[in-house]
Design goal:
4 domains; three-stranded mixed beta sheet; 33% helix; 32% strand
Length: 317
Amino acid sequence: MNKNYTIEELISDKSFKSFVLQSNPEDVAKWQSIIHDQPHQKEIFEEAQLIVAHLKIETPNIDPNAPAAIWEKINQNIEVHQPSKTRKLIYWTSIAASLLLLIYLGINTLFYNTTFYTAQGQTQLVSLPDNSTVLLNSESSISFNKRNWNLDRRVDLSGEAYFNVAKGSDFTVDSKQGSTKVLGTTFTVYARQENYIVRCYTGKVSVQVNKNDNILLPGEMYSTFYNNAKTTFDTAAQSQWMNGFFRFDNMPVEEVFAEMERQYKVNIEIPEHLKHMKYTGFFERNDLEKALSNVCWPLNLQYVIHGNRVTIKNVDE
């Protein structure tokens, strides 16, 4: 039978502290198993982990009896001072107590967030604490909490990335457009503006958008471009952006040129009435003029390059 833990028990348990600080692989494996089997105590485990993590920070040596003595002194002062002074004492005492609680409870976990960002024309391979990897496409970012990773494998994504997830507990990718959850698999997430695309390459992926769940198997994708529905895709072709080869299937040309801007560090101007034309094809990340020609020629468009600015218009204009 699973045991119901209290925070006090956890923060005083040597093996739990070893798990939080990752100082003993056996303790890490032990507590990962316990936490996985007791999801109803997730909040207890998380709070205990935060407390242990923050207690690791060096602090001045304090007499264990000091807090009680301080409060006793405060109570004595409250009893002997005049009302006006008492109010001041209570005011400053409450501020001091609040500050101590903020430090103790670890409200500043924000400082443990790690963020990676790629600029135009860049990609970056990021290694996560569990050896999962993330390949960021241009103008993309991820952030995650290293301290809390053992309890909650979760990253925030803006842009596009390819994930290779190590097996373990739930792994979640959050963005403003939706949430994707897996156990151990390879998949990509595209989250830009209001657009959201998730492609599953191996394993199984759960996609949640507007409280609606969609389960994807290898070769299946979810896309807002296809009326928020599932469809299939070529796993070999669609993964080629990682090697500088960008393929599109019935995609609005505005999105195609936006990707080209990210890869070539240019600004592409396209008239409003042309933005929703659909393009099926590809371009490569090694020759701007060739890339423009690949997209413009089948759509009867023409381009003019002015330094790092490109103007698109209809051939007949």
